[in-house]
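User: Let's play a game. I give you a shape written as C-alpha cells, and you guess the letters that built it. Ready? Here's round one.
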C-alpha cells in the first residue's frame, strides 16, 4: 500500500510539473551526453597515441651539395661516405634505437614524386637536390631527445626531426576540444541541478497541504521525502537514457554510417563499440543519483519535516 502511494505521488508530481520535468530531462540528457562524449574522446586520443606513437620515426637529414651552399649547418660541405658510416654505426649502438633505414636521394625524390607529383614545384626538383636521410624507429618514442642530442650539429647532419612533434600538436588540439566539451558539460550540469532544485521547490510547495497532513499523522521524514526524491531520480534516469541513446547514435552515424569516418579516415584507429558500452552504465548511474541527491539536499531546506 505504501509503495503504491509513493508511486502514485511520483506520477502526480511529474504531471503537475510537466514543463519543468521536460526541461530537467533535456538538460540532464545534454550534460551527460557531453560527459560521455568527453570520456570517449579521451579514450580516442589515448588509442590514437598508442597507434601513431608506435609508428613515428626520427629522421636524420644529411647535407647535400645544395645545403652546403645555402645552409650554415652544412658549411663544411656535403656528407661524406665516412660520415654516413659513422652515423649508422653510432645509431646501431644506441639502446633506444629499434630499427634504422637509409633513404637515398633518389629514393627521396621518388617518394616525393609519388606524394606531390601534381605540385608545380615538383617539376623543378632534381634528385641531387633531395636529402639523404636515416629513418629511425625508437623503442620508446619519448626518447627522441637522446637521438637529437647525439646527432644535432654533427658534420654532415643538416637536421634531426621528430614526427612525434607534429602528432603532439594534433593531440593538444584534441585535448583542448575535450576540455571545452567538459566546460560546456559542467555548465549544463549546473543548469540541470538548478532546474531540479527549482522543480522540487515548486512540487513541495504545491503539495504542502498533503505533506502537512502526513506529518500530523506521524509519517516519517523519509516517507514524506521519498516521492520528491524519486521524481527527480526518474527524470534524471530518463535523461541518462537519452544521453546513452545520443552516444550510441553518434558512434553509429558518425563513425560507422552517415559520415562513415571509419572508411574515409582509414589511418585513424577509432574506438570500438566496447568503449561506448563501457561508458553507458556510468552515465545511467550518474543520471539516477545526481538528481536524487540534489532533490534530497533541496528538501532539507524547502520541506520542513
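Assistant: Ready! My guess for every position:
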Amino acid at each position: 500500500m505504501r509503495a503504491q502511494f509513493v508511486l502514485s505521488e511520483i506520477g502526480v508530481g511529474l504531471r503537475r510539473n510537466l514543463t519543468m520535468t521536460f526541461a530537467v530531462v533535456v538538460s540532464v540528457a545534454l550534460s551527460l551526453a557531453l560527459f560521455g562524449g568527453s570520456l570517449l574522446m579521451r579514450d580516442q586520443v589515448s588509442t590514437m597515441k598508442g597507434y601513431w606513437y608506435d609508428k613515428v620515426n626520427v629522421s636524420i637529414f644529411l647535407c647535400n651539395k645544395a645545403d652546403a651552399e645555402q645552409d650554415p649547418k652544412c658549411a663544411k660541405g656535403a656528407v661524406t661516405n665516412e660520415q654516413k658510416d659513422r652515423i649508422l654505426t653510432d645509431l646501431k649502438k644506441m639502446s633506444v634505437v629499434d630499427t634504422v633505414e637509409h633513404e637515398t636521394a633518389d629514393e627521396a625524390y621518388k617518394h616525393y614524386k609519388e606524394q606531390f607529383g601534381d605540385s608545380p614545384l615538383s617539376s623543378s626538383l632534381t634528385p641531387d637536390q633531395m636529402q639523404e636521410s636515416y629513418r629511425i624507429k625508437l623503442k620508446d618514442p619519448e626518447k627522441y631527445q637522446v637521438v637529437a642530442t647525439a646527432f644535432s650539429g654533427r658534420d654532415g647532419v643538416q637536421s634531426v626531426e621528430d614526427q612525434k612533434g607534429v602528432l603532439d600538436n594534433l593531440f593538444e588540439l584534441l585535448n583542448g576540444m575535450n576540455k571545452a566539451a567538459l566546460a560546456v558539460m559542467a555548465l549544463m550540469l549546473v543548469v540541470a541541478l538548478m532546474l531540479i532544485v527549482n522543480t522540487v521547490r515548486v512540487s513541495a510547495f504545491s503539495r504542502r497541504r498533503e505533506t502537512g497532513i502526513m506529518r500530523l499523522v506521524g509519517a516519517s521524514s523519509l516517507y514524506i521525502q521519498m516521492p520528491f526524491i524519486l521524481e527527480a531520480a526518474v527524470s534524471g534516469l530518463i535523461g541518462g537514457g537519452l544521453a546513452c541513446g545520443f552516444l550510441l547514435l553518434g558512434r553509429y552515424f558518425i563513425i560507422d554510417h552517415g559520415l562513415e569516418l571509419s572508411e574515409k579516415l582509414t589511418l585513424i584507429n577509432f574506438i570500438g563499440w566496447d568503449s561506448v558500452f563501457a561508458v553507458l552504465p556510468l552515465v545511467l548511474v550518474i543520471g539516477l543519483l545526481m538528481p536524487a541527491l540534489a532533490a534530497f539536499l533541496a528538501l532539507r531546506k524547502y520541506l520542513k519535516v
